[in-house]
Amino acid sequence: MNKKEPVPEHAVIRLPLNYIAFWQAMTFFMLICAVWACEEFGLLHDGPPDFKRAALLTLVLILGGIIIVAHSYLQERKALHGLLTICSYCRKVRIDENAWTQIEQFVVDHSSADFTHGVCPGCYQRLTAEMASKANADRGPLT
Questions:
Q1: pLDDT tens digits for the chain (143 residues)?
Q2: Are residues 72 and 97 both part of a single domain?
Q3: Is the pTM value of this prediction over 0.70?
Q4: What is the pLDDT of residue 63?
Q5: Domain check: are 71 and 97 in the same one?
Q6: Residue 5: what are its φ and ψ, rounded to 5°?
Q7: Which domain holds residue 98?
Q8: Does residue 135 belong to any structural domain of this protein?
Q9: Strand locations in the chain, DSSP E?
Q10: Is 2 among the domain residues?
């Protein structure tokens, strides 16, 4: 079976917030138009149009739209963008002209990601080999 390979980060197309917000706003506008059309043409009920109900539904849709667009905005602000300056020795990230912080702390502060630690297979093999050679050296020569 073929395993699905992950998409490289540079190949992911990120839509700008204004594009996303525009289509979200257009969707809510279309829903509001549908509410008023249903009231005007009596598509959902018999009898005279109830414009108070349509106005109430419009208000609810506007409030929902504001909440959803605001949520998208906040999520976009938490996403990391652009280039980060990182020290090639200690792996700290520059947060302003004279301030540096650990990369883990920077990512936690500027995204919704958290960290956990583990050991990759390559490091595991290297470390176990180093510990084994150190243990052999500590034992000293057999007499």
A1: 455 555 455 445 566 767 787 888 899 999 999 999 988 888 887 788 888 988 999 999 999 999 988 888 777 776 666 678 889 888 898 988 889 999 888 888 877 778 888 899 999 999 999 999 988 887 766 55
A2: no
A3: no
A4: 94
A5: no
A6: -80, 145
A7: 92-139
A8: yes
A9: 92-96, 99-102
A10: no
Q: 127 lies in a domain?
A: yes
The tokens 């947060």 sit on which residue? 95
Question: 20: closest CA among 81, 90, 68?
Answer: 68
Find where tokens 């976009």 sit: 76
Helix (H, G, I), strand (E, B) or coil at 50: coil
Given the structure tokens 């500590």, which residue do they identify?
138
User: CB-based contacts of 93: which residues, under 8 Å, 6+ apart?
Assistant: 84, 85, 86, 87, 100, 101, 102, 103, 106
Tell me: do 24 and 62 sit in the same domain: yes
105 within domain boundaries: yes
Q: What are phi and psi of 93, to 5 degrees?
A: -110, 135
Give the span between the Cα atoms of 23 and 12, in whole angstroms: 20
pLDDT in the model for residue 129: 94
Our count of domains for the chain comes to 2
